[in-house]
Design brief:
The protein has about 300 residues and is α/β, with parallel strands linked by helices. The protein has eleven helices and ten strands. The protein has one domain: 2-enoyl-CoA Hydratase, Chain A, domain 1. About 5% of the residues have low confidence.
């Protein structure tokens, strides 16, 4: 039986119309969901930084939103992270400094772990509130490489490299690193380490000599951190909110605002498939620490696995 061309066209048009409406609805949802809802004028917004830090975009988007919201009088950054990649940690730190510059108080609350790159972030805040048993500190830089040349030899695989310069394949996992290459890597590590120490000295108003004495990668409990000048006081998230409210001049009980968890939309079924694949692959890479090999890290090493 022949299909009616008119019915086929109507079906195609109907399906296209549905997709367009779904797309418009998704765009409107995104536009409105990114707005800060109507809040009282005594609000304190809380932003979470969790897990290994490999990307700063979500945090930067959130902090800019709350920095511009007049209803939000102060921000608390809740850190529960062992640190991560240098670049994103520094970008978050810079965004915290920008918030301070505009006069909006920002306080860091240290959770179970707030070490290395997470502490780098905390150093930029007006105040740091830590639990007594929080694992923090780990002021240092680590960069790891693997040499699997024996594995290739066992598998009888010959690998060849064509390069434009002597050091273009520095850190290659297919051969032993030369002393000259180690010196280059160490020089870079020392430079990035100095950036970390400078951020701590500036943010915590400490002398560089005092920071250098404890910036060898060692970790501290929250209680020790307060005694060393790396944190201001002990307490949990609620105490951090109270400290932020006091800095903002809020009288009475502050209204606490947690960003809502985004729900999946219908449009995501059509558009987010690639993102889901990337998320799965990203989780595998994180589990195996593949995306961290060969990168300078502000990271507590034991937290990787």
């Amino acid at each position: 039986m022949k299909k009616n061309p008119l019915l086929v066209l109507l079906a195609i048009f109907g399906a296209a119309t549905v997709l367009v409406l779904v797309a418009i609805g998704g765009a409107l949802y995104t536009a409105f969901s990114d707005r800060v809802p109507s809040l009282a004028n005594n609000s304190v917004a809380i932003i979470d930084v969790k897990g290994i830090i490999t990307d700063s975009r979500a945090f930067i988007k959130s902090i800019k939103k709350y920095r511009e919201a007049k209803e939000v009088k102060a921000i608390v950054v809740r850190l529960d992270s062992p640190g991560g990649v240098v670049g994103p940690s520094q970008e978050i730190y810079d965004e915290i400094l920008a918030t301070k510059k505009e006069g909006k108080p920002i306080v860091c609350s240290l959770g179970s772990v707030a070490a290395s790159g997470a502490y780098y972030i905390a150093a930029g805040c007006d105040k740091i509130v830590t639990n007594p048993g929080t694992i923090t500190g780990s002021i240092g830089v680590i960069m790891e490489f693997a040499n699997i040349s024996k594995l290739y030899e066992w598998a009888k695989i010959n690998r060849y490299v064509v390069k434009s310069g002597q050091y273009k394949d520095i850190g290659s996992e297919f051969r032993t690193m030369t002393p000259a290459e180690k010196d280059i890597i160490q020089g870079m590590i020392d430079s990035v380490h100095m950036q970390f120490k400078t951020a701590v000295a500036t943010g915590r108003k400490m002398k560089m000599e005092a920071v250098t004495q404890i910036a060898d990668g060692r970790i501290f409990s929250g209680e020790q951190a307060v005694k060393k000048g790396l944190a201001d006081s002990m307490g949990g998230l609620e105490e951090a909110v109270n400290v932020a409210a006091k800095l903002a001049g809020i009288k009475g009980e502050p209204e606490i605002y947690y960003p809502p968890t985004k729900k999946k939309r219908l449009i995501d079924l059509f558009l987010d498939r690639e993102d889901e694949d990337e998320a799965v692959f990203g989780a595998i890479k994180k589990t195996l620490a593949l995306e961290l090999i060969g990168k300078p890290l502000y990271l507590l090493p034991l937290s990787r696995f």
